[in-house]
Amino acid sequence: MDEEKRKYVVSNWRKGWLWFSNWAFGLICYIATFGIPPEVLKLLPEATQNHVIAVLAVLGAITRFINQTKLQDTKTE
């Protein structure tokens, strides 16, 4: 088996803090731990206030498939 395929951690794990999905999942952890500040909650429509974590989870899953290394490479040109 190829050595690259057997690794459990991605090769660019040190840039993980830049990934959109990690930011979304980090926000989910923050909200689950500390809650949403009332000032921020008032900015959201009342019908969507209970669905914040679900929306963040969906965004995290969708943004996980964005090739962000490609985006970073074009910024340096």
Q: Your description of this structure?
A:
It is a single chain. The chain has a domain at about 35-70. By secondary structure, the protein is mainly α. Helix 1 (about 20-35) runs antiparallel to helix 3. The chain contains 4 helices and no strands.
Itemize the secondary structure elements and their pairings.
Blueprint: H1 20-34, H2 38-43, H3 52-63, H4 68-75
Short description:
The chain has about 80 residues and is an all-alpha fold.
What's the helix count?
4
Radius of gyration: 17 Å
> What's the assembly state of these chains?
single chain
Proportion of residues in β-strands: under 5%
What distance lies between the first and last C-alpha atoms, to the nearest angstrom?
36 Å
* Helix content range: 40-55%
The dominant shape is elongated
Poorly predicted ranges: none
Helix/strand order, N-terminal first: HHHH
Major sheet attributes:
none
Q: What structural class should be given to the helix and strand makeup? A: mainly alpha
Number of strands: 0
Residue-averaged pLDDT, rounded?
A: 80
